[in-house]
Design goal:
The protein is mainly β. It contains 2 helices and 48 strands. It is about 5% helix and about 45% strand. The longest helix has 12 residues.
Length: about 600
């Protein structure tokens, strides 16, 4: 089967305006990208490649010698940011279980965590949008042989990507190691590391507890909260957790929930896992107040390294209310409470409404005025999406089932539906849901929620969850891949205005499979891998909205491992012939030229 012919015929049939031709977008010849190549994941060399150039790849001088890339985490990362390119976000790299942090806006670039293999040096590096390399922070390893990572791999990045905070001396290091919390300013220029720790020794600072928002840093150290002005070079202020009346603080969960505006924070602490309280921190006043009267088994945020679930603990935008989950018997009940001392928590998932089907809650999604959350009841019970409106009647929040598989949007919610949420993405108040019904023999469903109120099932019977990609949050559209038993589709979902029903861009028979979806920053090009048969794969690129289709040369390939764009629009992809070798390619869509690296056992594009 000829992919080029099949796709051309399909596009002509479905979109009369489609013509296979050269792209006419702005030229970007000379775009520099960075690839990591080597004989093992522990001995990678960073090399620069000029798109469309015959010049061989050259080593990146700023980071000489082989390195090992270390997985990285982003504190307070929420799943609704998956499609948002205007805030820092985690992105998967070309090797399993390895991530980088993509920076937004004018700063741009990718942050990686690494160790040098020719010495015991660990650090963080930024690959800039132009391919240049900026070492952010390096430190020698610790322990007797210097081979223990001195950093917590979870770091904090401010919403604009201009400031990061890196923790030192993780909890598993030997006791007595100095605690550090470095703030690295001006990622757009020269990095200057400033240690905000008031003293050189003390409890470690979990990376999951560190947040940077605008010009304020908030972090947890033992039973105290650190608050620092990231623009000055002064040590952080120390705010001890409220000790009146005295409560034993033998356990402090290593996470902090921060309000959207950065004005308030909430910490969970108590005598043990079954006797925990909530402590509210006023960031500007530097005060701490215990807001719960009765201890319970309160869950933390749940957004640690490697986790992509929604948080179990979340503040609203202005820090007036907190939603939290408390384990009661075998279920997690959802509560909402004002941050004012002495306020009474409101039991949202009370048994009168939700028992026995909607007891365990999978996550809390904060918005400016509401909390949206998933009800979760088990393998054979309903699990719908509910919204609790906190703004209308604060003393009595109203809950509504907006996916309504039970047949009614209001309590009581009968067990008439079966939804297990497998994946979800959120753009402000609009949500895309992939429902897993495979245990009931129904495949996957694509749902869309508009303004956290109106939900509808759009496409049933999918073979796998749909994949979505977007150039940026405020872009006019997202692009998705939909796999059905008899056909596969590349489709556009409008975000401005939000229109949940996808518009097909390319439809092919089911033997052809699409994967590795990517959209360039302009939103005018989409690329993906297409597999005709095992060991026969192409890389395809389409211009939007006309649907102009183009295949970079040198295909087919044995396997396509990754597809992505540089900020300037060069198409990057990595392939292998099936013999264990990987070759990375940089395709200039204007000149039509491809630059390819020599084969290596490990190869992946960084920027």
């Amino acid at each position: 089967m000829d992919l080029r012919a099949t796709m051309r015929a399909t596009v002509r049939a479905t979109r009369a305006a489609t013509v296979v031709s050269r792209c006419t977008l702005a030229a970007h010849a000379g775009d520099v990208a960075v690839v990591a190549r080597g004989p093992s994941p522990y001995a990678l060399q960073l090399e620069s490649v000029v798109a469309g150039s015959s010049s061989p790849a050259s080593p990146v001088a700023a980071l000489p010698g082989p390195i090992a890339l270390i997985d990285i985490g982003l504190s307070n990362w929420l799943p609704q940011r998956r499609l948002d390119d205007e805030v820092p976000r985690l992105v998967e790299l070309g090797m399993d279980a390895l991530h980088g942090i993509l920076l937004p806006g004018e700063v741009g670039g990718l942050i990686l965590h690494y160790s040098r293999m020719d010495s015991t040096i660990y650090g963080f590096v930024r690959i800039k949008p132009d391919g240049a390399v900026q070492i952010i922070l390096e430190r020698p390893g610790v322990s007797w042989d210097g081979k223990v990572n001195p950093f917590d791999p979870v770091i904090a990045v401010d919403p604009e990507g201009e400031m990061i905070a890196i923790s030192g001396a993780p909890a598993w290091l030997p006791q007595g190691q100095p605690a550090h919390l470095w703030v690295v300013a001006t990622l757009g220029g020269t990095s200057v590391a400033h240690d905000v720790i008031p003293s050189s020794f003390g409890p470690p600072i979990p990376g999951t507890s560190v947040h940077v928002d605008d010009d304020v840093l908030v972090a947890l150290r033992g039973t105290s909260v650190l608050v620092a002005d990231v623009e000055d070079a002064e040590p952080a202020d120390v705010v001890p957790l409220d000790a009146s009346p005295p409560i034993a603080l033998n356990l402090v969960l290593p996470e902090i929930a921060l309000s959207g505006d950065g004005s308030k924070a909430v910490v969970v602490a108590g005598s043990d896992y079954y006797n925990l309280h909530l402590y509210a921190i006023d960031v500007s006043a530097l005060t701490s107040t215990r807001i719960t009267n009765t201890p319970s088994r309160i869950l933390g945020t749940g957004t640690a390294l490697g986790s992509d679930q929604a948080p179990f603990l979340a503040l609203d935008e202005i820090g007036s209310s907190v939603a939290f989950q408390s384990m009661e018997l075998y279920d997690a009940e959802l509560y909402v409470q004002d941050l004012a001392p002495g306020s009474v928590p409101k039991h949202i998932t009370n048994d009168a409404v939700f028992d026995p089907y909607i007891d365990t809650v999978s996550g809390v999604f904060p918005t400016a005025s509401r909390f949206a959350y998933f009800g979760w009841g088990g393998a054979t019970s309903a699990a719908d999406l509910y919204v609790t409106d906190l703004g209308t009647v604060p003393s009595a929040p109203q809950s509504m089932n907006i996916t309504s598989t039970s047949g009614t949007p209001l309590p009581p919610f009968a067990d008439l539906g079966l939804i297990d949420v497998a994946a979800y993405s959120m753009l402000e108040s609009n949500m895309l849901i992939a429902d897993d019904r495979t245990t009931q023999g129904g495949g996957y469903q694509y749902w869309a929620v508009q303004d956290l109120q109106n939900a509808q099932m759009i496409v049933p019977g999918l073979v796998s969850p749909p994949q979505f990609s977007s150039a940026r949050e405020d872009g006019p559209a997202m692009v998705g891949l939909f796999r059905l038993p008899t056909l596969n589709a590349l489709a556009r979902v409008s975000t401005d205005p939000f229109v949940a029903i996808p518009t097909p861009l390319l439809v092919v028979p089911a033997p052809i499979e699409f994967d590795h979806l990517a959209v360039d920053r302009s939103g005018n090009r989409v690329a993906f891998a297409a597999r005709l048969a095992p060991g026969v794969e192409y890389v395809a690129m389409m211009t939007l909205p006309a649907g102009t289709l183009r295949l970079p040369p040198n295909g087919p390939f044995g396997k396509v491992h990754e597809v992505r764009f540089t900020d300037a629009g060069t198409l990057l992809f990595t392939t292998s012939s099936g013999a264990g070798d990987r070759t990375s390619h940089a395709f200039d869509p204007v000149t039509g030229l491809v630059s390819s690296t020599p084969p290596a056992l490990y190869s992946m594009w960084l920027r």
